[in-house]
């Protein structure tokens, strides 16, 4: 019985991956708005019903690692090196994203271009990313020994996530992320230009 379940799960994972791969290939080749759900299902050799069992929307096909991203954010806080502040750990985590790498491979560059040039994808990516705020705030609260409803934990989680969103929309992504985290780490007075 366990072997059958393992096979079933592997088949589901393979179908999910085939759908995500087909969607990305079609989106990059034809543009997001010119590709239909039916086109993606046909390219992956499944029905549209099967597609919707794996992905709730067309946008979700582009961003299929949502749960992994949340786990990685929480781990960045919980598993940080002793002596590393939570904002420092979150800065390092955000900056190690492929979005901020100075050298992208061709497909990552195309993917970033696709997302930035498609308002529906830009909006979905931001909403998806910001859904991690609650889990991140809880991890921060647990690490600092404060209550889960502490507004400082929620604010830090919110602004750390927003730093990534700001950076991904900037012409200087790394500089933007660093500026945002400088503010989070040291406060406004420390980052103001001296007059």
Q: What is the secondary structure topology, with strand pairs?
A:
Elements: H1 2-30, H2 37-43, H3 48-54, H4 66-78, H5 86-95, H6 106-117, H7 119-130, H8 133-144, H9 151-168, H10 173-186, H11 188-191
Helix pairs in contact: 1-2, 4-5, 4-8, 5-9, 5-10, 6-7, 8-9, 9-10
What does this structure look like?
This protein has 195 residues and is mainly α. It folds into two domains: 2-61, Homeodomain-like (Arc Repressor Mutant, subunit A, Orthogonal Bundle), CATH 1.10.10; 66-187, Tetracycline Repressor, domain 2. It has helices spanning 2-30, 37-43, 48-54, 66-78, 86-95, 106-117, 119-130, 133-144, 151-168, 173-186, 188-191. Helix 4 (66-78) packs antiparallel against helix 5. It starts with a helix and ends with a helix.
